[in-house]
Amino acid sequence: MAITLMVVPADDHVKLNRISLGLVKAFQQQGYKTNFLQPINQKPIKFRRKPETIKQNKPIDIRYAEHLLGQGWINELIEEIVAIHENFSKNVDIVVVQGLSYISGQFYVEELNEEIARALDAKIIIAAAVNKKDYITLTDQIMITAYGYPSKHILGCIVDGISSLPDFIPLPMECIAFIPSMKHHKAIKKLGVNFIAKQINKDWIKTVATTIFKPCLSPALFRHQLIQKARIANKTIILPEGNEIRIIKAAMICTRRKIARCVLIGDSKEIHKITHKNGIELSKNIKIIEPNEKLINRYIEPMLSLRKHKGFTLEQAKQSLQDNTVLATMMLQQDEIDGVVSGAIHTSENTIRPALQLIKTEPGVNLVSSIFFMCLPEQVLIYGDCAVNPNPNSNELADIAIESVKSTILFGIEPKVAMISYSTGSSGHGVDVDKVRQATEIVKSKHPNIVIDGPLQYDAALMEDVAKQKAPNSPVAGQATVCIFPDLDTGNTVYKAVQRSSKILSIGPMMQGLRKPVNDLSRGCSVEDVVFTIALTAIQAAHKTS
User: Are the CB atoms for 413 and 217 separated by under 8 Å?
Assistant: First the structure.
């Protein structure tokens, strides 16, 4: 896997392009395959002498980037950058990313650089220019820039325009290169990139290139991978709440981005009235199914067959099929579509009960449960169960953990499971904590290969410094990727608190354990939530088919 280095400016005098290219050249001269990535083209690059060995992407035009930012579509912009990076990081050792420079009027530069760095899991190099600054001003600018990034990701700084080296020693972090001022040296100016490359510390280059950095799946990369997998799956997902504007908008986005083939259930005239009112032109590729008597009658016999052991009558079947979610679930049961997404205006029970009655559980699965994908600023965590099971016993809690591990692997996240409780290790006693302890042991006995520990408090599960104090020998503490909560009260409260207070994207709940994918939405869901739930459902459908 390529190491990504991002060069970010400490002020508006930094010649970011030549420093970035000099860094590329320095790695290449030491024998490392290195690509150069400029995510956004603020202004055309001017090479003094174009380096033939440097491969560069076609950057995103600044006007297009600003349009996306202006529409509030920063996630879409970041996902496009992630896609470019994914292509440019293949078969190379290093990718050098040029951050955005400070240009008058582009007030978003600092925040956008931080977003890009998080998305690409980039290690940071801060570039600063002396430009008549004294030592204190220069170091202050470097440190102010550093505060925007995790300290463990900052590899050092490059200082340009040095005329008197002793005046700028020591710096507050490792200096990779002091670049002499070129102001009065025309011969040096002509050397350009090669000259800068020679100033960069060769020992530092070797250390960086040979260091094994622990990869982090950023939310942007996770979202990008979801979209790519969903596109490949090319599944038909039905949306029973077709008259809801959030559902319509999500279907439009999924159609435009080729995430899934969306089908709306609802009154066609009403749907077109809603789209017209909201200034939306409904795509011709979105199918609308009207739930009329003829359609409902098609599913009466199959439903009676499925529910005959419960003494279901003809009238009960007709009445049940008046509910669009039940109708959609029957279409899924009959293999006419690939997945169902519902719950934007109905309760979870309204979505889940038909699935349990008509789709049923997978062979060998005792319990249907759910997980949320919590897209925190720097990583994606799995929370379960936050939507379905009110008070699972130890065996049920173990089942939830096992199914959550399967889901985690399906979506490309390394599972390290923390069984959450109010106490860590053996410090607490009582019915509640004993249940968590027993569930942990059940998982270990059934699946010794699963990395799991519990009971763990939430902070001990996720924070390295707390883990060292409370659970120093735990294989999970401080690095958990999956949090299994002891009951619905705890799980749902924590999920909503984290989602709302941190203003993050939480995708789900994704149902697990069903034979075919039916996924529930929160009634407070956003359009973005719906889009990614549709993507999840398409991926689940592809997995179950395979």
Answer: yes
